[in-house]
Specification:
- The complex is a heterodimer of chains A (181) and B (522).
- Chain A contains three helices and eleven strands, in the order βαβαβββαββββββ.
- Chain A has 181 residues and is an alpha/beta fold.
- Chain B is mainly alpha-helical and 522 residues long.
- In chain B, 72% of the residues lie in helices and 0% in strands.
- Chain B contains 26 helices and no strands.
- Chain B is elongated.
- The chains are: A alpha/beta (181), B mainly alpha (522).
């Protein structure tokens, strides 16, 4: 299981903390702007394999600009997204996907929660786990994403907190075999 | 004495309370009255909590013990502070557990303690540990800081703690606020709270001269930054008062603190602008209020610039530019122009290493691309500045990438005159792209050249996908051909593998999305 988070508020909502229990999640992919070392430590506590990429506010850190993580049969690309012009543009993000040569492309920055399939590849924006405001919009609903990878199937669970109530959406993505591509 | 307390039933204790206290509190000095009294209090406290009817109305436990303890402390002038505070703590617990509605009881104990220490400072020496423990009792019990703020004699007692203990208590208070997700929504309460937290917020006269551990300092100050997000009111006007109050206190923290504490204020101020904008139909003064907030943001950013936090200021200036732009009013447009110009100035004068420069100019371009409301007379010089700055980057690959980013400004950039429509200046887009290609051709390293060509190919396809008619299929095929030719001569390496797969993915996309383009596959 893989959890995805983004990072500008006092802390994670309690309801999320209850779900993010150590031991159940193997990898964490974070789109950056953690801002606090404690947040990183908190993520490390949930899963020992934590990948973070550099956000525009992660200034004194050594996080890379992009990262490719292989989990099972899936190559997953990770990037904050402030580098993608125009921000949040699906075509522009697709360009990065092609460059990183990944099956799943994860980006953040806009705090707009999205999980969609495009040209037989999968794209995710986990929103903001604290519901912090984004450069473009008011505060959003806190959200994060869990991915369950089994062979060539990726099941994505999208968790969001809407008016203090937890909502979950499930989306399935099947990776095409090399022959089909 | 202890036996008496353990053995006899509660009713007995109640009936004989006065006599008992009178007897054991004779000023003979050697008997350890502290433990005896505390035992007695705890016993009767428990009895009272079991059933409120257990204690008759006329036996006012708190008053009785309070009077007795005051007497004992006064007559035993050599009683050490730990004992004084242990007795006072027991009293506080009695008040909290048995008389929870009477917060004046708690404040009463605090006042007594304050008077003892103020009248004879010598009695307070060495009291930090116990006093801190005592002060945490009501914090833990009430679970929220609002009630604590209503105890006038709580904050003055903090002065008697030594520096380190004071700071630890401040950290404890903030952690409590964050943990319980308490919001403090009046500027008067915020003022009281921040005064209480002075030991964290600004330099103290009694702090040690050696500098603090930088990691600890960062954690503590980040806590203050996080606290800012709990100091909010749903009433916008009130929230602005709170923001001003925070600024007053946090600026006193000096340069070393503001990098951790001011950004939260900037973000909250930005959010408040958006709130006023959203509610503008109901508030005819909203534009003036927004102007004031923008001035406020400017003052915070000036403080950060003065303290030479260049990258942080640069990022925040760009965020502030976006909120100004979102207001959609001309007064805000000039502030937006001012903010983005300051970001440019920082980029030109203060960012020195080439990697940071590319990041900084890219961020300016990306932010500027999102704006909607600059008039053409502001938009045009900014477009030119972006293009100029990109072409002056030191390294050719960076120049290429910067210039190609500028193409977006001409395509999806928006001006006020265009009413939310994209500029779609296809010819200017092409100019940027051609220039980028030319810069790539000047790169020395052939593998970097090919990489840049593939990136530019993708951008050409992007504009084609988005309806730019100035991008012709032949431009695409020409570039594809060039890449195929040049990559044939490349040595195999990790980097070239990436470029190869990038190119392959691009061709796959081209052939599926643009079947009209004839690609010669080698």
């Amino acid at each position: 299981r893989v959890a995805i988070t983004a990072g500008r508020k006092a802390g994670l909502p309690q309801k999320f903390k209850k779900l993010l229990v150590p031991g159940k999640i193997q990898h964490i992919l974070c789109t950056g702007n953690l801002c606090l070392r404690e947040t990183y430590d908190y993520l490390k506590n949930i899963a020992s394999d934590v990948h973070v990429v550099r956000g525009d506010f992660d200034m004194n850190t050594n996080y890379p600009d992009q990262k490719v993580v292989t989990v099972g049969q899936f190559k997953i690309g990770l990037m904050h997204g402030h580098q993608v012009v125009p921000w949040g543009n699906h075509d522009a993000i697709a360009m990065i996907r092609r460059q990183l040569d990944v099956d799943v492309m994860i980006s953040g920055n806009t705090h707009k929660l999205e999980a969609y399939e495009k040209d037989n590849k999968f794209y995710i924006n986990p929103g903001s786990v604290t519901g912090a405001y984004s450069p473009l919009e008011r505060e959003s609903n806190p959200s994060f994403i869990l991915m369950d990878i089994q062979a060539t199937t990726l099941v994505t669970y999208v968790y969001s907190l809407v008016n203090e109530e937890m909502e979950v959406k499930k989306i399935e993505f099947k990776k095409q075999s090399a022959l089909e591509e | 004495m202890d036996c008496i307390i353990q053995v006899f039933p509660d009713e007995f204790h109640l009936k004989t309370l006065d006599t008992f206290l009178e007897t054991c509190c004779q000023p003979q000095g050697t008997v350890n009255v502290r433990n005896i009294i505390i035992s007695k209090i705890n016993r009767l406290s428990k009895y009272a909590q079991e059933n409120s009817k257990n204690i008759p109305e006329d036996i006012k436990l708190f008053e009785i013990f309070s009077a007795k303890i005051t007497q004992i402390i006064q007559t035993r002038s050599s009683m050490p502070p730990e004992d004084i505070l242990a007795l006072q703590s027991a009293l506080i617990k009695l008040a909290l557990n048995v008389y929870p509605d009477e917060i004046s009881y708690v404040d009463n104990v605090l006042l007594n303690t304050l008077e003892i220490f103020t009248n004879e400072r010598s009695r307070s020496v060495g009291c930090s540990g116990e006093l801190s423990r005592m002060l945490r009792v009501p914090i833990d019990h009430y679970g929220d800081i609002i009630t604590i703020l209503a105890l006038p004699n709580f904050a003055p007692l903090i002065e008697f703690l030594d520096f380190r203990t004071r700071k630890e208590l401040c950290v404890y208070v903030i952690e409590n606020i964050i943990k319980t997700n308490t919001f403090i929504d009046s500027h008067e309460q915020v003022d009281m709270l921040l005064k209480m937290l002075a030991s964290l917020i600004s330099d103290q006269s009694d702090q040690p001269t050696e500098p603090e551990d930088p990691e600890d300092f960062e954690i503590e100050q980040s806590l203050v930054g996080r606290l800012v997000h709990q100091l909010i009111s749903p009433v916008p006007d009130q929230h602005f008062l709170i923001l001003n109050m925070c600024k007053k206190h946090l600026l006193s923290g000096g340069d070393k603190r503001i990098q951790y504490t001011l950004p939260s204020l900037v973000f909250r101020a930005i959010e408040l602008c958006r709130t006023y904008h959203e509610l503008r139909a109901d508030d005819e003064k909203w534009e003036k209020k927004v102007s004031k907030i923008l001035q406020y943001i400017n003052s915070l950013l000036s403080a950060l610039c003065k303290a030479e936090y260049w990258e942080l200021s640069h990022r925040l200036l760009l965020q502030a530019t976006l909120v100004c732009d979102a207001m959609g009013i001309t007064s805000a447009e000039s502030v937006a122009y001012e903010f983005i110009s300051q970001a440019f100035a920082i980029y030109e004068e203060e960012v020195s290493d080439s990697k940071s420069q590319l990041i900084a100019i890219s961020l300016i371009i990306a932010t500027f691309e999102r704006t909607l409301n600059f008039g053409e007379e502001n938009h045009e010089p900014l477009r030119s500045q972006c293009a100029r700055a990109s072409s002056k980057l030191l390294k050719k690959p960076d120049q290429c990438r910067g210039v190609s980013l500028c193409s977006h400004l001409f395509w999806s950039g928006k001006t006020r005159e265009n009413d939310g429509e994209e500029l779609r200046a296809g010819k200017r887009v092409l100019e940027c792209m051609k220039k980028a290609v030319k810069i790539s051709s000047q790169c020395m390293d052939p593998s970097v050249q090919v990489q840049l060509y593939v990136e530019l190919l993708n951008k050409y396809i992007f504009f084609l996908d988005n309806g730019c008619v100035d991008v012709t299929p032949s431009m695409i095929t020409q570039l594809v051909k060039k890449i195929q030719e040049d990559s044939a001569g490349l040595e195999s390496s990790e980097a070239t593998h990436q470029v190869t797969s990038h190119f392959k993915n691009t061709l796959n996309y081209l052939s599926s999305a643009h079947q009209n383009i004839n690609l010669e596959v080698q």
